[in-house]
Every structure is written in C-alpha cells, then in structure tokens.
Please model this.
Amino acid sequence: MASYNLLLLPGDGIGPEVVAEVEKLVSWMSKTGMAKFETEKGLVGGSAYDAHGKSISEDHMKLAHEADAVLFGAVGGPKWDAVPYDVRPEAGLLRLRKDLGLFANLRPAICYPALADASSLKRDIIDGLDILILRELTGGVYFGEPKEIVTLENGEKRAVDTQVYTTHEIERIGRVAFELARKRNNRVTSSEKRNVMKSGVLWNQVITDLHKREFQDVKLDHMLADALGMQLVRWPKQFDVIVTDNLFGDMLSDVAAMLTGSLGMLPSASLGEEDPATGKRKALYEPVHGSAPDIAGKSLANPIAMIGSLGMALRYSFGLLEAADLVEKAVSNVLAEGLRTKDIAEPGRNAVSTTEMGDAILKEIQTLAR
Ligand code: IPM
Ligand code: MN
Model:
C-alpha cells in the first residue's frame, strides 16, 4: 500500500481545533487500509513565535519540504499584533508558499443545497453554485520589491508595495486555469485591472496569447476585477474558473466563500510545479477562513473547510479519488441531515460543536465506506 507523508501545521486560533478533526479522519483511513499516512506535526505562526521567536523554524520548513503534503490550519491573532513585521504570524504562511513554490491556489466555492439559506444572498442566486477561483499565490504585490516604509526629508513617511508579474508567472497560472476548466465546464474568466495597471495589461496579453496558442477549445472571457467582484454577488453562476492575481484573488475568494453560506465552508489547495522526474508537486492544503481568535478554544469553529482541504489533498496530492469523493459525500450528507455549526445555523436553531461535527462526518464516512 502506498504510504504518504503528511505534515500537520495547526497554527493559531481555531487552527488546532479544526486540524484535530482532520487527524481523526486521517488515522481512521490509515487504520482501515485506505492509504497509509505518516503524520508529523509542526509549529507555524504565533505559536511558532512563542516557541522560538520565528513564524516558522528552519527545522519545520525542512519538514514541509520533505512532506508529500502539508495540512495547514490558520495563523494570527491579536496576541501577536505587536510582534516585529518580519516574524508576524502571517510571515510563516507566506514563507511556506514562496519557498515551496506554491504558485497555484485553488479555491472552489460550492454551495450545498442544504446551506443555500445560510447565504446572505437569495437561494436562486447561489443554489447549485460550483465555481473555482484560481489565485496566483507567489507573485504580485504580496512579494514584489521594493516593499518598505521610508521617512522622507520633510519627516513624512512613504509606504511602497510593488505589484510585479513576469510573462512566465502569468503563463503558468493561466495554463493551470485552462487545464482545470477542461475538466469542468470549459470556461475561464481572467481578471485584472488593465485599465489602470501595467501588470494588468501584461496579464491580459499573456492569457490571451496562451489561449490562442494552446487552449482554443476553452471559452475565455476577460473581466476587470472590480466588475468581477460585482458580478460575483449579482449572478455568480455565470462563472466556471476565475483566474486572477494574488491580491485580487485574496479578496474575491473571500466574497466567493460567503456565497456558500459561511467562510467556514471553503477549502483550498496550493500547488507547486510538477517535478518532471517524479511527477509529484509540492502542496499545501488550508481552509480559506482565518484563525478566528474570537471563537478560538470554544469548540464553535466549523471544521468543514479543513475537512474539505483534506479531501482536496486526497484528490490532488495522492490521487485517492474515491476517498476524496467519500469525504465530500459525507460532508454533504451530514449537512442534508441538518447538522450545523453555529456559523451556518439558522438563528434560533441548535448548533453542534466542532468535535460533534467532525465526529458526525467521520461516522458518515464509515457508513458510506461499508
Ligand atoms: C488567505 C489569507 C492570507 C493571505 C493571510 C493570512 C496572509 O488571507 O490565505 O487568504 O492574505 O493570503
Ligand atoms: Mn484571504
């Protein structure tokens, strides 16, 4: 039986609580012989800072490099608001993305029928929604240099962030978008702000050229990022795959998450380039929600985004498609049965805890696997 090396990085806030639910699933899968998982655990974010003054240690970076996949919880919280910028909790996540070369961030937004009423939008707008936001993750304004705050001669300060993209960076994320679309509804919407940004002009050109050269069978549209934000809440079902840069992707995927009822529902996969020798790619899986310090430690968090992230790992890193389907089906069934954590419960209705939701999903998987 194939054996896989999983690194768990629970992080801060609700991270450890939702990762604990995934651990239950992983150990059950190992026990039943679906696949053999070797797991290790590391520190990232504020918890790493508390332990050794860095947002991730070199030892734990090494573990991440060696792992077949990383499962990441969440980082950050008010406790670390005052730590130096370079070692703030988010720096650990950004370093993982950059050093592992995880340029392709897949953020699917699927609206489960059972949850259509938990969205702030009307049911017919989001019922049956199934879109994929593909966010470029290692370039753009997140990493561009210069990135600094300088003091001018007159004593005033000046802050600079740099939005920068090369042809290669745009082309490789575009290629992932077209390939993913071919396995879905064959449509790509590329988004930038070419009306004000040079990087947007280049983005548009490179995607257009790539489409013409290699992917004419896929339908391509371009939409300015502000208009796309508006269209996402007006009629989101018009989209299939949306490909966009790091910053626009960050914002638009939060909007898309809320279409599905709660930020607690959205999983994500961050993938690197395929190694031609081994056919493997580095990968990190994380829920789109953050560390939610306000509800941390209370077993109120929704573990579904984290569990969905494990499902994506089974699918994209391990090729365990049946196991991935099983996880997704179990989540859907449990929701259809009416189980809700607080974030997706209708006002006045009973909500279950993080562990109760995790246990119910595991039980459903066991039933389905029989
Ligand atoms: C996300 C988060 C991160 C980001 C933060 C925690 C650095 O918001 O994954 O969307 O901005 O990319
Ligand atoms: Mn974000």
Q: What stands out?
A: The longest strand covers residues 3-11. Residues 250, 254 surround manganese (II) ion (ligand 2) (CB under 6 Å). The chain is about 40% helix and 20% strand. The mean pLDDT is 96.
